[in-house]
Design a protein that fits this description.
Elements (H helix, E strand, L loop, with lengths): L2 H11 L4 H8 L3 H8 L7 H11 L3 H4 L12 H8 L6 H6 L3 E2 L2 E2 L2 H16 L2
Antiparallel strand pairs: 1-2
Helix pairs in contact: 2-3
């Protein structure tokens, strides 16, 4: 099932018209129509709004999974939302990658130093 079919199915399941859904998520009805017919792809912000509105995962909308929701354990969600790359334990337990290649510990530290330097210029 294409993303457009999934959006239309979710909308119809809720008993909403295209006009009603477009108002609720802040896009034009014409744009929603184009998304539902797969003539145009929604940008990240729009796909995120649609996923949040219907309480489904973006992966579901894009057809990467048939499971509507991917629920993270609360501990995992807290960890992800509060990940601090300056914590040495984090750098040892997890690999950071750029362009598919793992950063060495020295590269990770230089990356963090670069971000700190950029922030100091603000």
């Amino acid at each position: 099932m294409k993303y457009g079919d999934r959006i239309a199915h979710l909308r119809e399941k809720r008993g909403l018209t295209q006009e009603e859904l477009s108002i609720k998520i802040g896009i034009s009805r014409a744009s929603l129509s184009h998304y539902e017919t797969s003539r145009r792809e929604p940008d990240y912000e729009t796909i995120n709004k649609i996923a949040n509105f219907f309480n489904v995962s973006i992966d579901y909308l894009l057809g990467r999974t048939n499971l509507q929701q991917t629920v993270l354990d609360n501990d995992v969600r807290d960890f992800v939302e509060n990940l601090d790359l300056t914590d040495e334990n984090i750098l040892q337990k997890f690999s950071l990658t750029v362009d598919g290649r793992k950063l060495s510990p020295d590269e990770a530290k230089r990356f963090i130093a670069f971000v700190r330097a950029e922030r100091s210029l603000e």
